[in-house]
Amino acid sequence: MDVRQINKLLNDVKSGRLSVSKALEALKHLPYEDISFAKVDHHRSLRSGIPEVIYAEGKADDEVIQIATRIHKRSGRVLITRASEDIYNKIDMKDALYYPSSGTITIGKKMRGKGLILVVSAGTSDRAVAEEAEITAAFLGSNIKSLTDVGVAGIHRLLNNRKEIDRAKVVVVVAGMEGALPSVVGGLTDKPIIAVPTSVGYGTSLGGLTALFAMLNSCVPGIGVVNIDNGFGAACLAHKINTQ
Predict the structure, then answer these.
(1) Which of 134, 143, 159, 170 has its CA 20 to 30 A from that of 243?
(2) pLDDT per residue over 166-212, tens digit each?
(3) CATH 1.10.10.10 given to domain 114-242
(4) Residue 37 or 217, more confident
């Protein structure tokens, strides 16, 4: 339940369209709903602006389904990350969509987008992480555009899209290998940059550590860095910046 829903609930009670007992029923799981193996935080968006999102990896399929069902019952919208196709096939909700590249599932109506987040990815191998960022930010209510396969090995591809960079309020840059792309983008714009290192690369990429260190040590001011392969975290930060 978010601020909009609580306002509607209180106005319905005030106007007589909803009884006090029904309103109490809707609010009874504040601050969370205990379902034994999980404590579902239905009111997280009231505190942080980001609703509880289900991280499916490491959970049993049935646990994911139960949590998703409880969230959907309260808010009508669910986001699941790092999910398998098996989980998607077990979801009995007609408005569920599955994005196999990133393993992301969305359930519920799309929100009207605000502002503009540009997600830039260096290579095709970085697309899974970039897709997670795009879907998450769109689910939260930001407008999204993407630039794909514009890494520094062919820097003219990036330079041909400078107008797209300038239109954005915030830019998420996803790159593996040596992780140079966020510094290049940061040198072209005054927009805040959120850098996402990926685990893409050969031996001394060290599973994304080389890209992470490069981004943390960028000489370009105004670059924030999230964890390796963390498209979700980058999207949440970008959404907060975009909607302020």
Answers:
(1) 159
(2) 999 999 999 999 999 999 999 999 999 999 999 999 999 999 999 99
(3) no
(4) 217
Chain-centroid distance, C-alpha 43? 18
In b/e form, how buried is each residue of 65-99, taking b as 16+ CB within 10 angstroms? Answer: bbbbbbbbebbebbbbbbbbeebbeebeeeebebb
C-alpha pair distances (Å), 191 with each of 31, 72, 167, 176, 222? 36, 35, 9, 21, 8
pLDDT at 2: 64
User: Quick one: CA dihedral 101, 63, 3, 193, positive or negative?
Assistant: negative
As a whole number, the mean pLDDT across the chain is 91
- Supply the pTM of this predicted model: 0.85
CA-based nearest residue to 118, from 148, 139, 157, 149: 148
